[in-house]
Q: What sequence folds into this?
């Protein structure tokens, strides 16, 4: 299954979209909240249920001990979002100042997530937040650059508005170049369109010279639930946002599979120290308390 990173030029609904995709997937799924500016899910969707002693920041110290310690910490810091434990969350940073400590952790964390995707069939979604550039490159502290480099797909989330397209237009070429030179190829880049505004998918693709891989409807009721938590809105399970998100996950899998066949990626070398994460995850149940 693919590892898909979501980014934006400015706040465009990256976290809401990532949550929708994770909860709508037909397969086991994981959302890694890796925005260096800080996570919002624990205070919003989870309504403070998860404390600061739990989540992404604590993986930095484990990584310095070694791969097995990182795999153990990774499994221990995942939060189950459903009773069966099929939907998991790695909660994000509680303080943006913590981001600097993760610089050397990102590559190893990416490897763990690829193990889950390739060996356990997880859909992996990375909330990488707002893109920050420095001299035309991804900023090494303000973006989790290695996660984008190693992702199977990188989705720039945009809305169908003039403002959103204007902001995104300045990021397309630097991001495409970054993925061509340091990632899995420029064709890893696609657009996820939030259907809010006058521009349709074909117009957005033409304006940004980048394919729209999926679209999600502007669904204020479901989006509000993902942002603030509380009680699901009436008809939540049949909401347009979840229905379209479910379809989107299938499109992403098909696109990633085509890329793999076309580029004939060599298989990733097995890392026995990371393989144990699969067993640890299988022992985890539903929501933790």
A:
């Amino acid at each position: 299954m693919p590892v898909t990173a979501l980014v934006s030029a400015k706040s465009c609904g990256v976290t809401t979209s990532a949550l929708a995709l994770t909860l709508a997937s037909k397969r086991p799924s994981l959302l890694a909240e890796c925005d260096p500016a800080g996570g919002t899910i624990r205070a919003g969707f989870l309504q403070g249920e998860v404390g600061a002693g739990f989540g992404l920041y604590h993986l930095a110290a484990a990584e310095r001990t070694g791969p097995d310690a990182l795999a153990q910490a990774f499994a221990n810091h995942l939060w189950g979002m459903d009773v069966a434990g099929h939907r998991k969350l790695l909660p994000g940073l509680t303080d943006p100042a913590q981001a600097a400590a993760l610089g050397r952790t990102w590559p190893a964390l990416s490897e763990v997530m690829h193990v889950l995707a390739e060996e356990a069939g997880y859909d992996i979604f990375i909330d990488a937040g707002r893109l920050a550039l420095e001299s035309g490159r991804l900023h090494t502290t303000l973006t989790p650059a290695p996660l984008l480099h190693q992702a199977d797909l990188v989705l720039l989330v945009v809305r169908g508005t003039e403002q959103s397209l204007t902001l995104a237009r300045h990021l397309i070429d630097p991001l495409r170049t970054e993925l061509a030179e340091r990632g899995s190829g420029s064709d890893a880049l696609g657009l996820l369109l939030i259907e809010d505004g006058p521009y349709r998918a074909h117009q957005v693709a033409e304006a940004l010279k980048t394919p729209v891989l999926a679209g999600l409807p502007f669904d204020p009721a479901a989006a509000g639930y993902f942002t603030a938590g509380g009680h699901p809105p009436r008809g939540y399970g049949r909401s347009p946002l979840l229905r379209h998100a479910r379809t989107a996950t299938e499109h992403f899998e098909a696109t990633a599979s085509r890329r793999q066949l076309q580029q004939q990626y060599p298989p990733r070398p097995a890392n026995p120290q990371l393989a144990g994460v699969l067993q640890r995850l299988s022992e985890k149940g539903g929501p933790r308390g």
